[in-house]
Amino acid sequence: MATRIIDKGKVEGGAVSICKRCNKDEATTSIRSEPVCLQCFTYYVNTKAIKRLETYKDRNRQSEAKRYLLPLSFGASSTSLLHILDEQLRKQSERMGRTSYELVIAHVDLEFEDEAASKKVRSLWKAVQDRFPKHTYVEVSIADALDIKSIDWPSLGLAVDKQLPKKERLANLLKSISTATSRSDIASTLLARLLVSVAEKNSCGSILFGDSTTRLAEKTLTETAKGRGFSLPWQVSDGTSPFRDNLFFNYPMRDLLKKELVAFTKLTSPLLADIVIPVNTKSALSASSKSTTIDDLMTQYFESVEENYPSIVANVVRTSSKLTAPEVNGGAECTLCGIPVAEGTDGIDGWSGEQSSSSQPTKEVASVRPILCYGCARSING
């Protein structure tokens, strides 16, 4: 088992299980297969995140902005990260009278939920601000991504009627994409671009994503299957973002499994579970294959794998983290996702097999068509 809550530390036969870390208190939880007490488990989760955060100091030293953007989805991972960082800042303030950084909490309204779900999200957003009042809060709509000036929608062949409200424009744009996976991919791309825009507007030097080990493993296989394997160094590894040198992408929860974080939300005081939206992956999968995305399948797969084989999940992330971002000299940026694209490798033509100059469009043709990475070209063309 990855992480489980043991009923009052009892095991078969009525014996009490003792924590394997402190060898003193009664074990009420387990880390992977190791029974631990509540205090040791909480210390384990906090330490993993804080130690990872400490490694960013030297890396981010050149960035004058001591502000971190934390995207909040109300999932167990991002909510746990907010709780841990809020506690760290509180202790810093009490001990030194100051803090080493500021947090900007961003929530993106995905605009896809029904009214009941939207009402629930609004309630949670207020509850989070009440519980963690010392931070800056920013709420934006995914439809605001349509205002990003570097995305030239007409050149992409995607109709965007500027006379309509942004929410309707986005809905119509996504409806024009033929497959569920492509629609999900475009929405994820817009979300990433929007978060970068929010970070820039709020002078943040780093975006702290709450992705767990499990989530990063999902992304590794998902992005590869969607033709975005080249972007993995930015999507699963700590380091400079592909958008500007003084903006970093960091993943402080990368050493913790999703199951561990779900358990953590049920053990804090007050409970974090009260401000977390639970997700039942199995019930979320549609019975119709047309509505099921690659993301859905990978999420279900890795959640089942981490239950009994957590080391496999961790190995996927460790392996993908060894990838380095390619040096793109003389290239351009993808019109949609903004990722650097090497000259002659853009679009589906650039990865059609033969990578010779004769297989590429002529410069005259290339000059009138948008620059797209392979992943975006696949999504736009279904």
From TrEMBL:
Pathway in which this enzyme or protein is active: tRNA modification; 5-methoxycarbonylmethyl-2-thiouridine-tRNA biosynthesis
The text of the family note is: Belongs to the CTU2/NCS2 family.
Stated name of the protein: Cytoplasmic tRNA 2-thiolation protein 2
Q: Name one Pfam family in it.
A: CTU2
GO terms under cellular component: cytosol
**Single GO BP term:** tRNA wobble position uridine thiolation
Q: Which PANTHER family match?
A: CYTOPLASMIC TRNA 2-THIOLATION PROTEIN 2
User: What's a Gene Ontology MF term here?
Assistant: tRNA binding
InterPro entries per UniProt: CTU2 (IPR019407), Rossmann-like_a/b/a_fold (IPR014729)
What are the record keywords, sorted? Cytoplasm, tRNA processing
Location relative to the cell: Cytoplasm
| Function description | Plays a central role in 2-thiolation of mcm(5)S(2)U at tRNA wobble positions of tRNA(Lys), tRNA(Glu) and tRNA(Gln). May act by forming a heterodimer with NCS6 that ligates sulfur from thiocarboxylated URM1 onto the uridine of tRNAs at wobble position. Prior mcm(5) tRNA modification by the elongator complex is required for 2-thiolation. May also be involved in protein urmylation.
Q: Which organism is it from?
A: Pseudogymnoascus destructans (strain ATCC MYA-4855 / 20631-21)
